[in-house]
Predict the structure.
Amino acid sequence: MQDPSVSLQRGTRQGLALRLAGTASGNPAAPGALRLAVLEPLRVVAVRALPAADGGWIEALRDSGVTRLPAPGRCEGVAVRVVWRSPTEYWLVTERPALLDPVAEALRPGATALAYAVDHSTGTVGIELQGEDLDALLARLMDAAAIAALPGQATRARCADLAVVLLRLQAQRAWLLVERPVADYLLDWLRLACDRVGAG
């Protein structure tokens, strides 16, 4: 596979132009073709609470529509997806940013003891992957043990040697969360891998 760093030196970049859903190559979509899209808008808020924190942080989550916390290695929810990160941290991820206003306000740093929220939206890019060959694509870019294979699973992994959070939403649909400074690079790798998978 060609190193996408070569394309970084060219005047014209594909990168976040993939924000419009379509095939990686830009050609008309064939049935079952892998599709990439940048998720915009996307809000990502980390909620951290120590075991001794009172129940106020749980109430703040409920005010944002969160009714259930996931077990390790899982994500829960639809409008707001809750991702387990550690025994003391959960990520709230949504395409409807205003839904997280209540928790961001109630748990702003310093507002309550032993629990707080940090908004990672500015520094995070979400990428949606969808298609029948999703598993084949992920297998090309990350270790098999790190792939969230079943709907509702969420893992931290290295994809094209970059740190990502992988959320498996459906059998043929997943989200990747990656730091914004390296999102263009990851999108280049994804586009190349999609083309390779599509070519067989």
